[in-house]
Structure formats: structure tokens, C-alpha cells
Amino acid sequence: MNQNLIKTFQQRGYFNQCTDLDNLNKLLDNKKIKLYIGFDCTAPSLHVGSLVQIMCLRLFQQFGHTPIVLLGGGTTMVGDPSGKEESRKILTSAEIKKNTSGIKKVFNKFLSSKGSNKFVFLNNEKWLTKINYINFLRDYGKHFTINKMLTFDSVKLRLDREQSLSFLEFNYMILQAYDFLELNNKNDCTL
Asked: Which Gene3D superfamilies does its entry note (predicted)?
């Protein structure tokens, strides 16, 4: 069954990179998993570029896996630097809430909310806004090196073009990593 899932992904052109295809195959062969994709709430609806990610979640669900739709209520407060030439506009809490509400409507059209593998909505605002900054730096900051972070495209391109990158945006990838840790610890999410 797993081989069909991976094959379907490849046939549809959904695969660009895979860190460890052998381990992914083993993981999918051994059990049904929970997986997530995150969507920041920067606009009242998603753009067409998000459709591929939604279809990936749908395909996994059709093969019996449980999709988690992670709404980035917390990360939206920071702003994803990827593909941007300047800092995103800081949105108010009211704007983020309104956008979150609009975005949620999209998923019922593509994902099933019935059965043992019904999709789940989570919002990273729930845990990110409760972080104690000093404890966060001490517990998690030590696992990230500036050297490595500077090699990521979202950072490297902005610096190569001599475009400013705020400290706020620079932290975005750490918050993404923390999201996965939270999802793994509290929701048994593995992908």
C-alpha cells in the first residue's frame, strides 16, 4: 500500500526532495501516521500555490493516514521571510483571527472530517504565545547554529541581495521546528 502512495506522489510530481526515502518507506509500511502542513494566516484565503500542499494531505488521507492542518496563528505574528524581499506587514490579532476563519473554510472541500483518520485543525498560537522566552532560548536555542541558519534560502537570498532581515523573521525557522516538536509530543505527528 505504501509503495502505491509514494508512486502516486512521484507520478503527480509532488516529490521534489526527500531527506530519507528509505526511512519514509519504512515508516509508511509499518503504520498509519499523522502528518501536518502549516499555513500562515496572512490573508483571508489561501492562494492557488497552497493547492499542491492540500492535495498532498488529501492523498495521504486517502491512503488511511491522518492529516493535521496547522494554522499559523502564532507564526503569522512573526512573518515568514521565505520568498520576500522585505519584512511582511505585522498583522493585528483581529486580522489574524479573521484570516484564520477564512482559511479554515477551504479544507472541508478537500479533506474528510469523518472516520478514524478525519483531519484535525490545530493553531500554533496555542503554544507559541505561551513560551517563556528565556527558557525557550536555553532549552531550544542551543540546538540551532547561526552558521547553519545562514545557509537556508529564506535567509541567504535576502542577505545576498543586501535586503534587511529582521531578528523577528530570523526566528521564524526556530518556531517552525518547535511546531514539529509540539505536534510530535502532543499529537504523535511524525511527518
From this structure: HUPs
Position 85 scores a pLDDT of: 66
Residue 73 is part of which domain span? 32-187
Beta carbons within 10 angstroms of residue 128's beta carbon:
19
d(CA 120, CA 28): 20
Angle of CA points 185, 187, 191, to nearest 5°: 85
C-alpha cell at 37: 502542513
CA distances from 56 to 15, 36, 60, 75, 133 (A): 10, 10, 6, 22, 34
The C-alpha atoms of residue 151 and residue 72 are separated, in whole angstroms, by 24
* SS3 (DSSP) at 71: strand
Helices 172-187, 133-140: inter-axial angle, 10-degree rounding: 80
Domain assignment present for 1: no
For 160-170, the pLDDT digits (tens) are 888 888 888 88
Contact yes or no for 5/63 (Cβ under 8 A):
yes
pTM: 0.90
